[in-house]
Structure formats: C-alpha cells, structure tokens
C-alpha cells in the first residue's frame, strides 16, 4: 500500500442552473400607461450577480430576472420598484 501525500483530490464542479425570479406588474386604473422600473440588488457579497439588474415592464406585463447559480447556497436579493417622478403615484420604500 502506498500513500502519496502530495496528491490533491478536487471536488467535481457543480452544474450551473438558471434561476428565474418572475415579476408581474399591475394596471393602474387612471387611464394612462405606466412603465415600472424594477431593480434587483444582492443583499450580500456571495450571491451570484443577475444577468440584468433592471427590468422595465409596462402595466399588466410580466418579466423575470435570470441568475446563473453554479454552487449551492442561500442567496438573498432585494427586488423593488425604482422611484419615479409621477405625481399621482405613491412609491413604496420597502
């Protein structure tokens, strides 16, 4: 039996998976068309970066953030509407 202390054993690479975070925007019943600007931000440094950090979605529309994940873990993101300048809309800070 031989022991080779200089041998290095590496773990196999993980398969990359694409995670999707769907976003649905509602209609504003005021007779005008509103475009939502939706932002995603990582809450920590270890979370994978999304392919795009912003979506522009017209009301009653849908979109999705796509993130390639290549290792296991718990990843936390904040998703919110970017505050605009429309006077008749109250923007939620949360």
* Helix content bin: under 10%
Neighbour order of strands in the largest sheet: 3-2-5
Q: Describe the main β-sheet briefly.
A: 3 strands, antiparallel
The overall pLDDT average reads 84
Output the radius of gyration.
21 Å
Question: How large is the share of residues in beta strands?
Answer: 35-45%
Number of alpha- plus pi-helical segments: 0
Number of beta strands: 5
Distance between the termini: 63 Å
Shape: elongated
Q: Which structural class is indicated by helix and strand composition? A: mainly beta
Describe the overall structure.
With 94 residues, this protein is mostly beta strands. Helices cover 0% and strands 36% of the residues. A 3-stranded antiparallel beta sheet has the order 3-2-5, with no helix packed on it. A two-stranded antiparallel ribbon has the order 1-4.
